[in-house]
Amino acid sequence: MILFRSKNEKYYKRGETKRRSIVKAFTWRTLGTLDTIVISYFLTGEIKTAVSIGGIEIFTKMFLYFFHERIWNFIKWGKRGI
Fold it and tell me: pTM of the predicted model, to two decimals?
């Protein structure tokens, strides 16, 4: 299994679409929310409270992540060959 592929110059010139940012935000937040629910459960001992906390933060953090990614697309620092 190849974990890292060599990337050519063309790869770095491409930007990221809004759809890709949305999918990345959704998948990352799903994983993050599951983590939050587990941690909340260990701290509170109540699954209902843990799921409530996770249910709220999935939307707030997905929203924040999406705009964070879009803002970083405007920043040229650290990009290659543009």
Answer: 0.57
